[in-house]
Amino acid sequence: MNQCSDVFENVMELAKRRGFIWPTSECYGAVAGFIDYGPLGAMMKRRVENIWRDFYVVQEGYYEIECPTIAQEAVFIASGHVKGFSDKMCQCPHCREYLRADHVAEAGNIRNASILNNEDLSAAITSCTCLACGEILGSVEVFNFNLMFPTTIGPGSQRVGYLRPETAQGMFVDFSRLLRFYRDKLPFGAVQIGKSYRNEISPRQGMIRLREFTQAEAEIFVHPAEKNHHPSFQRYGEYRMPLLTWIRQQKCEDAVEMSMREAVDKGIIANEYVAYYVALTHELLVTIGIRPERLRFRQHLPDERAHYATDCWDAEVFSPRFGWVETVGIADRTDYDLNAHAAQSGTPMTVFIQYDVPKKTERRRIIPNMSVLGKQYRTKAKAIFAALEAATPTSAGASINIGEEKIHIPANLFEVRDEVVEIRGEDIIPHVIEPSYGIDRMCYAVLEQAYDEDIADGEKRIVMRLSPNVAPVQVAVFPLMSRDGLDVLAEKITQTFHKNGILAEYDDSGAIGRRYRRQDEIGTPFAVTIDYDTKDMDSVTLRDRDTMTQVRIPVADLIETVSALIKGRITFASLHS
Ligand code: GAP
Q: How far is ligand 1, taken at its centre, from the CA of residue 166, in Å?
């Protein structure tokens, strides 16, 4: 039951008051686009990140690496960010605020604003209102603003660097070392969780659009011919979810539910690898507490796709305040990045693929008569030998070019030998499949969807229905009274939880109802109460946050039961039977 008119306001008020999220350096006046995670928020974020690690590092077997958040300019010249990583900006002539021109257009109901060029966008927004002051904009220039934060490396240095706008590039430039780590075999993957930076124009959407944010990205390197053969595709072949294809978007139709097998077979999703990570992302988001009915996967329109992608799907989560919010992007980046870094750095970024059975191929070799040609052509001889190797001779000889000079070499000065050679394999440039998660947007969605209000003991109760696996405090421990040894027993139980890696919070202050309310508000899923029966019967009551029901269980079973509840191995309802 959620009776709030604007859940965003309520969530943010609670988040600030209870220590999930608050504005950064507030005492100096907060700066838009930066937030602090407070004690509970930082713990919740860490739990979300660790669930991500369970999926990608433990289950998929892709090791995590950690690269610097600053990189030299060459990296971002190669990646295309120096030239092309910009948003379209305009300035309000009335209040002087800088605005994202496509956002102004979207707010003015102009369709496909993100794909208009600067001139068309400028013409389209003349009758739109400023998002800051509400005045009609009139004629304004639209120009590109690069979102990267530049810096210099070293004191007094002219060496340009940038704060990374995505974690991905670190994994591309490490390709050769990663390949060796994975013993020169495809497919393999590397993952990274860390901060990325974008100097967003006028961010005003709380945790959704930040200038410093956390990404969790996986770069999976695959043989281009194997993209339609994911080794574990059967795991998700029958997995169903709502897909909003680009064709349906063009026809203004809604998402349609489909299995991954069907989506690949019908050519809707480009290949099995992309479909596999679309499904895995769905499962991961549901695991952290996103409701399936608020989740859809939207395919990028052909002209919306990033310059490097052939197919791209966004996991979008519905927010009553912000509409459908892109939270994860899953792209087939092809060989774009490896090609670009190989060209910029001069380091080959290829994998040698050995054939199962070596291939036999015919080859014609031209063997020059070195002693005669050497004497005759002296300084030009080396160039002539090389040119002969590539020549197509006739029975009369071979015509070759050495610089501007055309030279005819008679047939008796070389031998043509046709041979069959064995080729063991070939060098290929892998393609990259990239699922890219925005951890802060995931955390916002988790908080927003958890917020609820109901009635308890005749009073309004605010309850964060966080999934037990992301709740910062996992169990509360209350002595019914802070005397008669109940407090000592409760402290002992709290310590046993801690020794078992469960974050338990001891609280003996105030009436028990108040203590429940405090924990409900921060989403603590379970509470243990130590009462007088505990002393006699060695048992405690265990309370479920969502149903507010209680069961009595032996102290000896407490750790195992709570641990199983947190991990979702059992349900609270099953304890009643
Ligand atoms: N390496 C690919 C990449 O960075 P992206 O779609 O630009 O792709 C991936 O970003 C995810 O990062 C997004 O889906 C979003 O969740 C998150 N993200 C991007 N910009 C953000 C911002 N300014 N604030 C918060 N999260 C952001």
A: 8
Tell me: the pLDDT tens digits for 337-361?
A: 999 999 999 999 999 999 999 999 9
Give the pLDDT confidence of 227-276 residue by residue, as tens digits: 999 999 999 999 999 999 999 999 999 999 999 999 999 999 999 999 99
Tokens 């990028």: give the residue.
300
Q: How far apart, in whole angstroms, are the C-alpha atoms of residue 452 and residue 476?
A: 20
Q: How confident is the model at residue 78 (pLDDT cuts 50, 70, 90)?
A: very high
pLDDT confidence bin for 4, thresholds 50/70/90: very low
Taking the centre of ligand 1 as the mean of its atom positions, its distance from the CA of residue 167, in whole angstroms, is: 10
B/e letters for 288-323, b = 16+ CB within 10 Å, e = fewer, are: bbbeeebbbbbbbeeebbeebbbbbbbbbbbbebbe
Query: What is the C-alpha to C-alpha distance for residues 245 and 258, in angstroms, rounded to an integer?
Result: 11
pLDDT band at 113 (very low <50, low <70, confident <90, very high): confident
Q: Is the CB of 436 within 6 Å of ligand 1? A: yes
The ligand 1 atom at the shortest distance from the C-alpha of residue 209 is 24
Return the pLDDT at 5.
52
Which helix (H) or strand (E) segment holds residue 505: the answer is: strand 504-506
Closest C-alpha residue for ligand 1 atom 16: 438
- C-beta 443 within 6 A of ligand 1: no
CA dihedral 276, 277, 283, 286 (to 10 degrees): -150
Q: With a 6 A CB cut-off, is 215 part of the ligand 1 pocket? A: yes
Centre of ligand 1 to C-alpha 269, Å, is 21
Per-residue pLDDT of 518-541, as tens digits, reads: 999 999 999 999 999 998 899 999
Ligand 1 midpoint to CA 564 (Å): 34
| Strand residue runs (E) in 350-458 | 351-368, 397-402, 405-410, 414-428, 431-438, 451-456
CA distances from 386 to 98, 370, 380, 401, 416 (A): 61, 12, 10, 11, 15
Calpha distance 541→534 (Å, rounded):
9
pTM as predicted: 0.91
Does ligand 1 come within 6 angstroms of the Cβ of 520?
no
- Distance CA(72)–CA(496), nearest Å, equals 49
Q: Name the average pLDDT for the chain.
A: 95
Q: What is the DSSP code string of 229-292?
A: --TTGGGTTT-EEEEE-HHHHHTTPPPEEEEHHHHHHTTSSS-HHHHHHHHHHHHHHHHTT--G
Asked if residue 515 has its Cβ within 6 Å of ligand 1, the reply is: no
Q: Hey, which of 45, 199, 202, 436 would you mutate to test ligand 1's pocket, going by the most ligand atoms within 8 Å of its Cβ?
A: 436
Q: Which three-class secondary structure state does DSSP give residue 39?
A: helix
Task: With residue 15 as reference, give the H or E element that holds it.
Answer: helix 7-18
Measure 439 CA to ligand 1 centroid, in angstroms.
9
Mean pLDDT over residues 479-485, rounded? 93
Residue pLDDT, tens place only, 356-401 = 999 999 988 899 999 999 999 989 999 999 999 889 999 999 999 9
Whole-angstrom Cα distance, residue 91 to residue 140? 7
227 in contact with ligand 1, CB cutoff 6 A? no
